[in-house]
Amino acid sequence: MIGKVKFGGLPSQQGYSMTPEPLLIPASKAASVIGVSRSFFYQMHSDGRLGPLPIAFGAKKVWRVSDLEAWVQQGCPPRSQWLVEGAR
Known about the structure:
By secondary structure, the protein is an alpha+beta fold. It has one domain (23-84). The chain has 4 helices and 3 strands. It has helices at residues 27-34, 38-47, 65-73, 79-84, and strands at residues 24-26, 55-57, 60-64. A hairpin with a 2-residue loop joins strand 2 (55-57) and strand 3. Helix 1 crosses helix 2. It is globular, with a radius of gyration of 16 Å.
């Protein structure tokens, strides 16, 4: 979430961060977001238990934070169900 700006001063003066949260995160951070280890995250990705698919930037893969959040809110369905239901 991006820090809120209140009238009457700069956000940095009110203790708010001007640095936005990342929209795309690597597997290590994605694993942390959903509360599993990085190796288990990759295992879930490999066997289709992780619904959201990564975005590839060359050899680097990143996940959308919004996809991970939506996936958890929907009960962590397997990829086959996640994709069929039109979530992504």
